[in-house]
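Page 47, continued from p. 46.
Same chain as before, 96 aa.
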Amino acid sequence: MMQIHVASLPDIPEMHRIRTSVRENQLTNPALVQPHHYRAMLNEQGRGWLAKIEGRGVGRRLHDTMMDWLFAEGAEHVWLSTDRGTRAARFYQSAG
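Result:
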């Protein structure tokens, strides 16, 4: 069973590990994304979510959870970006 929870400060090391290990949408300069950026996101600027297990559908559930929260917070428009022709671009397109 997949469980999604709101990320908190103790989750930062694992969030950072995942972010710096992706094959697509790699950071051109990983030094530009440091733990204090995650702290700012979690404490001041927004929210993040984690799935407790991996498997088919995890990305879509995380995406939908994020979008539901953004619109509940009053967002009228949301832009997600990535490189053209990537799995992420196809994923965002299929998610609408």
